[in-house]
Write a structure and sequence with these properties.
single chain; about 120 residues; alpha/beta; 5 helices; 5 strands
Length: about 120
């Protein structure tokens, strides 16, 4: 199983990749942008997308995934800050399956990923 992680900040992308690799349950693929993430998802083999909200661009990514018949089955989990909670209606309305509040804790992230899959 492969998880595609998406974040526009290289340091956070690397931290997420390292965190998920510790779990040793999934292959990890990383993308620094929505455009790169869509290309990687279209290539196949992605079973879950974990994306930062990235100023709402994470919701744009979710929308692109939901609109494509070949990708719409892929669950999307979004990383948010506590300040982003006010946007939960919009987040779920975009088709996001779940969210994780930053800073991310491995146990919580694993539990939420397993629940979505």
């Amino acid at each position: 199983m492969s998880i595609l992680i998406v974040d526009d900040e290289p340091e956070r992308l690397s931290q997420l990749e390292t965190l998920l690799m510790r779990a040793r349950r999934w292959n990890i693929v990383a993308a620094p942008s929505v455009a790169d993430a869509v290309v990687m998802a279209e290539a196949g083999g992605i079973e879950l997308v974990l994306t930062d909200l990235m100023g709402m661009r994470g919701l744009d990514l979710c929308g692109q995934i939901r609109r494509r018949p070949e990708l719409c089955h892929i669950p999307v989990v979004v990383l948010i800050t506590t300040d982003d909670r006010e946007h939960l209606g919009r987040i779920y309305g975009a088709g996001v399956c779940d969210y994780v509040i930053k800073p991310v804790h491995l146990e919580e992230l694993m539990a939420r990923v397993q629940a979505v899959l």
